[in-house]
Structure formats: C-alpha cells, structure tokens
C-alpha cells in the first residue's frame, strides 16, 4: 500500500491547465512558490491548502489528486512548495524540514490578506506534522488562520519515525529513496550556494538520522538531530490544538509507528478526530473502504468519493462538513 501511494499518477488535465504560479514571502528574503487553482469567484469559495511530504512538492501525485477533489467540490486549491522545493528548488538556498511551521503561518496570513477567509489545510506525511505543530503552537489564535486541518500519516514523533526507517528490508528501501533525493537536492543547492551548503560529508550519510544530523539540523539552527526531532515534532503540541482536526493513520504504516499516537491524549481534546485504519500503509490508503469507519455515520464512508485514494476522500468529506457544502 505504501509503495503504491508513491507510484506516478495521472495528472488531471483540468487541474494542470488552470493552475497558476503564486508566491508567498515568508521573511528573510525567502519566498515560497505554490500552484493555485481558483474558482470563478475565488474569494467567496473555501480554500484547501495542500502541504506535501518529504521529497515531495506541489506536483506530487497526491497534491494533484487532492486539488482535483477540492476543485470539483467548489473549493480553491493551493498546492504549496515548502522551502527550496518545486519551483523554488534551484533558487532558494534553504532546506525544508519538519519544523517550518512559521512558514506555513506566513502563507496562511498571505491568503487571508488576499481576501480568502475560509482556509483548510491538508498535510501529507511531513506536511501533516508541520500543520499540526503550527496549530498547537498558536492555540486559539490558529482560528484566525485556518478553519480546519487534516493530517495524513503524519510523523508526529520524528525520532521514532527516523529510527523506524532503519528497521526491515522494506523500510531500508524507502530510506534509500529518501536519501537519494535529499542528496540530490543538497548538491543542487551547493552548486548555487557553495558557501552556505557544504557537501564534504554528503556521501558518508547512510541513514535519515545521519542526514538530519549533518545537514537538516545544523542548517536549520537546531544543532543536531536529537534536538531537531525534539523541537520539530508535533506530538507535544496536540493537546493545544484548538481548530477542528482530523488525524488519519494506518496501523500498518511501515515507518511512522502507530504507537506515536496517544489515543487517550487525542480523545481528551474535543478538537481532534482520530481515524485509525488497519491498512493503508504510509499515505497510501488505496481502496473505496477501510476496516475502520470514517468519522460521522459509517453509511457515509463512500458518499461522493472520487477515485480510489481513500484518505483524500476523507479529507474532502471533513472539509465539506466544516464548510457545510
């Protein structure tokens, strides 16, 4: 299931034809790019902001899939590129990471200042951690920026997720794929900004923790991987979330341990809805149904579903319920 989620997907032509490039300044001379699809009256329609995961971008298959569903439901769709990703990879010297919640706050603020008043966030994997971290950090103030959040397969305990990648043959394959892309990105940035991005240790990196210890943490100001994981994980912030939030996670997720989710703590926060499933892998969830029911009435599980990507449909269902669409 996890492998299938990463397979190339058909790019919806209607989405690709109508997308426009927008930029959001986030301070320090840095701006983030995004691909937006607007309704005919964009400021009167709800907006879904899609935040990608590790090694992803605004053109990842799941980003397009979520946008297609949002557009069909009468919503705007904005697919964000985190720092140095997508259209900003060869110009932005920054390396994105799981703790870039201030960037997300600036993007949401920019949408609000442009006249968009009802904004929802869907974060996939690392993007889900960023969204949850922001909501918890802001507490009640988050309501000024977003009306609801969906986090799909979010690695809310970064240390546990990183260590899990070193266990088992399949996780070793995923770690290899992640590191291959991360090394490439670092080398691209080194060619443009050699004084800021050293690469003398890049070929010695063997695990994601190694990479975070040598590159992510020091370049982002965290020092080392342990401090980065402790400071950037969303888990400590969940009790402070004050906006409606749906957490989707599979028990068979191969590298984000299900034990990361404290079901008792989640149940104590009325703003959090936890939707665990038996199957789904990491951000896969391919199929029209899962063993666990969706939130609300089980009879509405597949109502209005588009395509086979179940978690994307649940995200849209959650947003439509909040927006009364």
Explained architecture:
With 325 residues, the protein is α/β, with parallel strands linked by helices. It folds into two domains: 2-157 and 234-323, Rossmann fold; 158-232, no CATH class. The protein is built from eleven helices and eight strands. It has helices at 2-5, 13-18, 61-72, 101-113, 126-138, 158-164, 169-192, 208-220, 225-232, 263-268, 310-323, and strands at 20-27, 30-37, 47-51, 76-80, 119-124, 148-152, 245-250, 272-277. An eight-stranded mixed sheet has the order 1-2-4-3-5-6-7-8, with helices on both faces. Helix 3 links the parallel strand 3 and strand 4. Helix 4 (101-113) crosses helix 5 and helix 8 packs across helix 9 (225-232). The radius of gyration is 18 Å and the shape is globular. The two termini are 31 Å apart.
In the CATH classification, which architecture of the largest domain applies?
3-Layer(aba) Sandwich
Using the coordinates shown, work out and report the CATH topology of the largest domain: Rossmann fold
Distance between the termini: 31 Å
CATH top level assignment of the largest domain = Alpha Beta
Secondary-structure-based class equals: alpha/beta
- Strand order, main sheet: write it out: 1-2-4-3-5-6-7-8
The residue-averaged pLDDT reads 90
Proportion of residues in extended strands: 15-25%
What's the total count of β strands? 8
**What is the succession of H and E elements?**
HHEEEHEHEHEHHHHEHEH
- Tally of alpha and pi helices: 11
Give the helix level as a range of percent. Answer: 25-40%
The CATH superfamily of the largest domain turns out to be Alpha/Beta hydrolase fold, catalytic domain
Count of folded domains: 2
């Amino acid at each position: 299931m996890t492998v299938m989620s990463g397979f190339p997907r058909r790019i919806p032509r209607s989405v690709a034809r109508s997308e426009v490039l927008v930029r959001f300044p986030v301070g320090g001379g840095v701006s983030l790019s995004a691909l937006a699809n607007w309704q005919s009256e964009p400021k009167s329609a709800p907006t879904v902001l899609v935040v990608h995961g590790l090694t992803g971008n605004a053109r990842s298959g799941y980003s397009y899939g979520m946008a297609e569903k949002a557009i069909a439901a009468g919503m705007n769709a904005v697919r964000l590129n985190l720092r140095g990703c997508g259209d900003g990879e060869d110009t932005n010297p920054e390396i994105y990471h799981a703790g870039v919640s201030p960037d997300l706050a600036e993007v949401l603020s920019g949408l609000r200042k442009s006249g968009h008043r009802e904004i929802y966030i869907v974060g996939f994997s690392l993007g889900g951690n960023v969204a949850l971290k922001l909501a918890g950090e802001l507490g009640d103030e988050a309501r000024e920026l977003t009306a609801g959040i969906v986090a799909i397969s979010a690695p809310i305990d970064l240390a546990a997720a990183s260590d899990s990648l070193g266990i088992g043959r399949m996780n070793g394959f995923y770690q290899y794929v992640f590191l291959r892309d991360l090394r490439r990105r670092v080398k691209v940035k080194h060619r443009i900004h050699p004084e800021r991005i050293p690469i003398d240790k890049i070929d010695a990196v063997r695990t994601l923790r190694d990479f975070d210890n040598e590159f992510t943490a020091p370049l982002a100001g965290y020092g080392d991987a342990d401090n980065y994981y402790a400071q950037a994980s969303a888990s400590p912030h969940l009790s402070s979330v004050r906006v409606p939030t749906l957490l989707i996670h599979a028990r068979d997720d191969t590298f984000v341990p299900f034990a990361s989710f404290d079901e008792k703590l989640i149940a104590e926060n009325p703003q959090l809805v936890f939707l665990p499933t038996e199957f789904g892998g990491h951000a896969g969830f391919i199929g029209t149904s899962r063993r666990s029911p969706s939130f609300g009435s089980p009879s509405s599980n597949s109502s209005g579903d588009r395509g086979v990507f179940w978690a994307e449909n649940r995200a849209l269902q959650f947003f439509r319920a909040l927006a009364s669409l």
